[in-house]
Amino acid sequence: MTESLHTVFAKAASFRDVLAAALELRKRRNPRYSLRSFARDLELSPARLSETLDPSRKQGLSALSARKIAAALKLDPTRTEFFCDLVESEHGRSPAARKVASRRLAAWRSATLFTQMQADAFAMIAEWHHLALVELTFIESFRADPAWIAAMLGISAEEASAAVERLLRVGALREDAARGLVAVTNRRQVDSPVPSSAVRSFHRSVLGKAQEALDCQSMSERTMRSVFMPVRPEQVAKVRDMMRTFQNQVLDEATGAQGGVTEVYCLSAQFFRLAPSGRKEADASIQ
Fold it and tell me: Nearest-CA neighbor of 113 among 7, 4, 2?
């Protein structure tokens, strides 16, 4: 339950938001789950819970009740304190107590938002399906449905749903009345001169997808070519630039097509030294 409520805590303006979200999540998992069931699990009377959830009734919780509810929801220590501060900020016994709780909430939200943005940016680079999902929105038959997205990309519906939420948070996608989701970003390539674990993870995952294609796709669906060559050290940078130019040319050709787009493809090019270490180290090892 804690993991499912993670995004709720980042947006919650009141402890009622957390309780309402927890109830909704349980009802999704079990359609027969009711307010009465939720009250039983929280050790509250149904009438008391109903009054507490109704913002117009201004029915609060005591500090002790807040901690008991947090325990019933199986919140981790950090979210337990956050939940209790939500309660205290509204129903603390004194203005001073409410003010202190509000300050703690503001600090927590600020730190959480920054951490979430970092995590989202990392995941968007490290996991290939995020950028693929952005490109998928350009397909004419695109459907903003996690099950459809999952089938098109070969991932789980849970991964698709989480990716959509993450891309919306970072602003790579936006909700649209006509198509459901549309792309905002034009970031189509991952090419960083700075060593990064996220970039390395991304390229490992893309290479894994290439291996899958090698085993599962026909020659008419894929093309894979490898060539070995001797090069001078000063040629490496030039080859890198040539590869980037080639990829951009293919990208322009593909995105310039009018209509008829039905699939998302990946053009991944590699150019790397075959020896695991530099020449000097290799020479030293054989002397």
Answer: 7
Q: Using one digit for the tens of pLDDT, what is the confidence trace for 220-248?
A: 999 988 888 899 989 998 998 898 888 88
Quick one: pLDDT at residue 19? 92
Largest CA distance in the chain: 85
pLDDT for residue 244: 84
Cα(56)–Cα(178) distance, integer angstroms: 35
- The C-alpha angle 260, 263, 267, rounded to 5 degrees, equals 115
Tell me the DSSP string of 29-90.
Answer: H-TT--HHHHHHHHT--HHHHHHHH-TTTT----HHHHHHHHHHTT--HHHHHHHHHHHHHH
Q: Write the CB contacts of 47 (distance below 8 Å, at least 6 apart in sequence).
A: none
What angle separates helix 15-29 from helix 77-91, to the nearest 10 degrees?
A: 130
Q: Among candidates 132, 264, 253, 272, which has minimal Cα distance to 189?
A: 132
278: buried, middle or exposed (CB in 10 Å: 19+, 13-18, 0-12)?
Answer: exposed
In order of 111, 133, 173, 266, the CA distances from 263 in angstroms are 39, 11, 19, 10
- What's the average model confidence in pLDDT over 138-164? 92
Residue 3 has pLDDT above 50, yes or no: no
What three-state secondary structure class fits 23?
A: helix
Closest CA to 193 of 228, 241, 262: 241
User: Would you say 1 and 79 are in contact if contact means Cβ atoms under 8 Å apart?
Assistant: no
Q: At what angle do helices 95-126 and 157-169 cross, to 10 degrees?
A: 120
Helix, strand, coil tally for the chain in percent (to 5) = 60, 5, 35
Q: Is the pLDDT of residue 175 over 60?
A: yes
Select from 82, 62, 80, 81 the least CA-distant residue to 70.
80
